[in-house]
Amino acid sequence: MPYSDMLLQTCEKYPRYVPPDNYRATWIVGGGKGGTVKTTSAIHLATVIARSGSTLVIDADAGSQSSAKWAATYQQITGKEPPFTVVQHTLETGLAATARRIRREGGFKHLIVDLPGNAGAQFGQALRIAPEDAGGQTELILAITPSKIEVVTINGTLEKAGEVAEELEREIGAQIIWCRNDSRTIELSDAIEAADDESQGWPYLRTVVPQRVRYRNFGEIPDHTGSYEGVVSEIVEGKAVVLQHKKKEIGAA
Ligand SMILES: Nc1ncnc2c1ncn2[C@@H]1O[C@H](COP(=O)(O)OP(=O)(O)O)[C@@H](O)[C@H]1O
Ligand SMILES: [Mg+2]
Predict the structure, then answer these.
(1) Does the predicted TM-score (pTM) go above 0.70?
(2) What is the DSSP letter of 191?
(3) Contact present, 56 and 84 (Cβ < 8 Å)
(4) Is the CB of 73 within 6 Å of ligand 1?
(5) Residue 143: predicted pLDDT
(6) Which of 5, 226, 237, 239 is deepest in the core (most CB within 10 A)?
(7) Atom number in ligand 1 closest to CA 36
(8) Ligand 2 (ion): which residues have CB within 5 A?
(9) Is the backbone of residue 37 left (phi > 0), alpha (psi -120 to 50) or beta?
(10) Ligand 1 in contact with 180 (CB < 6 A)?
(11) Phi, psi of 33, deg, nearest 5
């Protein structure tokens, strides 16, 4: 897609999105290293998806600006409960089992995992959290700032996710959200060129999250989430690209 077409929308122009009742999210928010906008994305995604049902966010990162602290700050500022529940799990082990148990016991419809900044042990565990419903699919959502230093991590991350899909003999969806894009630079145009290269074919959403002060408001949970309205509608409306596990591909050929 031409890069220029992706920048036409300003954040406020996206219609407020309410997901359909029959969609159930199991979304794993990962990405490159630190500061690639995983937590900001997880919180904004949770805000939108929570409009269609109870939402559990697992905060797997003890980092300074974590989802749990975001929710606590919101509570302090407004005196209100956030529209989703955040539970911390920062241990190296047990992430998948904990997520499944809390989801089941709490009767949560949606689950979002906010990962720390690496593709380590918790990354693989998070991808092992199967959706509760038969037709559902776990989605890996990569929040990536389109800078050279982040873009080089994408192949490795997608490969690791593909290995988990192969091992589980299950399909895992994958999408990149280009986040914190500075439209004065050519970084996004370079990143898209790399993504569209035949040898890579990285899956990415057409909705770009620009660099804006509004996303820096730690602890705020806005009624309209700007570009994330478009991001969630793209994921839910089924544009997500599937990482086929290899065995099935060979079987189907
Ligand atoms: N769209 C945006 N525009 C400008 N700054 C942003 C945007 N999204 C996030 N940020 C800022 O970038 C920094 C890293 O974001 P964060 O979500 O904490 O990343 P991560 O969880 O990957 O470490 C934070 O200071 C955050 O406020
Ligand atoms: Mg974070």
Answers:
(1) yes
(2) H
(3) yes
(4) no
(5) 96
(6) 226
(7) 22
(8) 38-39, 61, 63
(9) left
(10) yes
(11) -90, -135
Place of tokens 């509004």: 214
For residues 178 and 144, is the Cβ–Cβ distance under 8 A?
yes
Q: For ligand 1, is residue 219 a contact (CB within 6 Å)?
A: no
Pick from 7, 28, 37, 228 the residue to mutate for probing ligand 1's pocket: most ligand atoms within 8 Å of its CB: 37
What is the residue whose two structure tokens read 């500061």? 35
pLDDT digits (tens, 9 = 90+) for 146-171: 988 888 899 999 999 999 999 999 99
The full length of the chain comes to 253
Q: What share of the chain is helix, strand, coil (3-state, %, to 5)?
A: 40, 15, 45
pLDDT of 220-233, one tens digit each?
999 999 999 999 99
The pLDDT value given to residue 100: 95
Q: Which residues contact 54 (CB under 8 A, 6 or more apart)?
A: 84, 85, 106, 107, 108, 109, 110
Tell me which residue has its CA closest to atom 20 in ligand 1: 35
pLDDT of res. 178: 94
Q: For residues 37 and 180, is the Cβ–Cβ distance under 8 A?
A: yes
Q: Which fold has domain 29-252?
A: Rossmann fold (3.40.50)
- How would you classify the pairing of strands 172-178 and 241-243? antiparallel
Which one, of 211, 205, 207, lies nearest residue 183 by Cα?
Answer: 211
